[in-house]
Amino acid sequence: MDLDEVADRLYALPPPEFTAAREAEARAAKEAGDVPLARDIAKLRKPTVSAWAVNRLVREHPDDLAELLDLGERLRAAWQEQDADTLAELTQRRGAVTGKLGRLIRQSGDLSTAAVTEAGQTLEAAVVDADAAEQVRRGHLSKPLSYTGFAPAPILRERPARRKKPSPEDEAAKAREREEAEARRAAERAEAEAAHREWREALEAAQKEYDQRAERVSGLERKLAKARRKLDDARNRLEVARREERHARQRLDQ
Description:
It is built from nine helices and no strands. By secondary structure, the chain is mainly α. Helix 6 crosses helix 9 (168-253).
């Protein structure tokens, strides 16, 4: 057993199951006498939801992911060679492939909009950065990836290449992308409305509880003020009684 084998098993699990499984793997390695491996296993970080979604994509849709990573290699080569025609063609394919993988990610589980966005950024990073592509390929991500470097466009040394008329497939891909964007916006709007409705109801309940408790406290304060006045009256009567009793005792002694 080595660290890669253990990581393969752990990063295939949903995030809620990761920590307990990691502890069990580390304990098993320690009991087997491999203390360094146990320490390395204990250092493996629990994946975020978006990282888990990409790891799951690696395992459940390897061919689709391989297509994206291969496309990334060819795009990077086109950037390096300043091949404008190839870059334009691959850029069109890139949109279709990333769109397909994005749909697979959204279908893989009940992910939040933020998690879907982070997973998409991870895939984009794998396209433009070779190190990110290797991390994605291994399927051991613990956090989403992003690329902040500059991806150069080709330099047109002569006249610009004539723009090709989009194929029906490209038009269909763009239409799907527009539909997906609209669906995402609708989903985000619905999520925001649901959150606002939930917090509005929570606000109303909290305001009602506050008003009730404030009224109760006000009533108790009125009762306390009345009780304090009665206490003051009783204290005055006590002082008078003590004074008169002392005078009476003095007259009796005389």
